[in-house]
Amino acid sequence: DRVKAEVVYGESRLDLRFDSPLGDVCWVEAKSVTLVRDGVACFPDAPTARGRRHLTELTHLAREGVGSAVVFVVQRADASAFKPNDDTDPEFGKTLRAARDAGVQVLAYRCRVSRWEITIDPHPLPHLF
């Protein structure tokens, strides 16, 4: 019914909050992925305390029974799967796994980028974690 952008929750400003007429809520954080290794999209490409904080906030929401999701938008067409980049930021990988286990939906979508448009493939990428 309603979508709000850049909504403050806890110590973070999360990207989106969806509110339904029935009172259901879903918080969503989107992350842009540009690193692909051997066909696998990896996030992050540099250590990200902010990204870990966002996941911690989403985990708290999920444990309270509130809808929450993180969406990794892969800005390349050559990715066939997604995983956290544990080599670059092992704490992010641990935090993402804990978020997933707490009920945060983890989704990754590949984009096709051209001079004229960016389109998102409607089929989510499989996870390798």
Provide a quick synopsis of the model.
The chain is of the alpha/beta class. Helices cover 22% and strands 43% of the residues. Helix 1 (49-63) packs parallel to helix 2.
Helices and strands in order:
Blueprint: E1 2-9, E2 12-19, E3 25-33, E4 35-37, E5 40-43, H1 49-63, E6 67-74, E7 81-84, H2 90-102, E8 105-113, E9 118-120
Parallel strand pairs: 3-6, 5-7, 6-8
Antiparallel strand pairs: 1-2, 2-3, 4-5, 8-9
Molecular structure report:
There is one protein chain. This protein is of the alpha/beta class and 129 residues long. Helix content is 22%, strand content 43%. The chain contains two helices and nine strands, in the order βββββαββαββ. It has helices at residues 49-63, 90-102, and strands at residues 2-9, 12-19, 25-33, 35-37, 40-43, 67-74, 81-84, 105-113, 118-120. The strands form two sheets. A six-stranded mixed beta sheet has the order 1-2-3-6-8-9. A hairpin with a 4-residue loop joins strand 8 and strand 9 (118-120). Helix 1 (49-63) runs parallel beside helix 2 (90-102). The radius of gyration is 15 Å and the shape is globular. The N and C termini lie far apart (33 Å). The mean pLDDT is 95.
